[in-house]
Amino acid sequence: MAFAIHRGYLPGCIGRIAELHARYYAGASGFGLAFEAQVASELAAFCTRYEDGRDGLWLALLDGRVEASIAIDGRHAEREGAQLRWFIASDALRGRGVGRQLLGEALALCDARGYPRTRLWTFDQLLAARHLYEAHGFALARTERGAQWGTPVNEQLFVRERP
């Protein structure tokens, strides 16, 4: 089955992206309600203030259903760097190249806009994601212990300087 990439908001995508995150991270890391609520509320706020060209949201659709996503929040890009957020793929698309394609689309926006850097927060248990980030020019900038999602993890800041 082939997937399609859609740029921008689609009805239901906020809930679906929050669901993808909640289900994956509950199983992988024990994250619960606080995590899901924060994903949903921050994503809803992002979609509400979204400015085409400054920001980006890409959705991978399989049979019309959101199965993967990535976003670039350019609101503070000049001061802090653009922030890569809500990068996830369902089991239906994981391992099929969708992550590489979505990440390429997101970074192409950052490069076209001339953002000085792109940053993202993740944690050290996500080794496949780290490999993908490093393959696209991100480097680990900082690690700190955190428990904001209810489970202690080593949070990591990755930064990609403009090529």
UniProtKB/TrEMBL annotation:
Keyword terms: Transferase
UniProt cross-references to PROSITE patterns, sorted A to Z: GNAT (PS51186)
GO molecular function, one term: N-acetyltransferase activity
Domain of life from the UniProt record: Bacteria
Transmembrane regions listed in the UniProt entry: none
Gene3D superfamilies: 3.40.630.30
N-acetyltransferase domain span: 4-160
Protein name: GNAT family N-acetyltransferase
Database matches in Pfam families: Acetyltransf_1
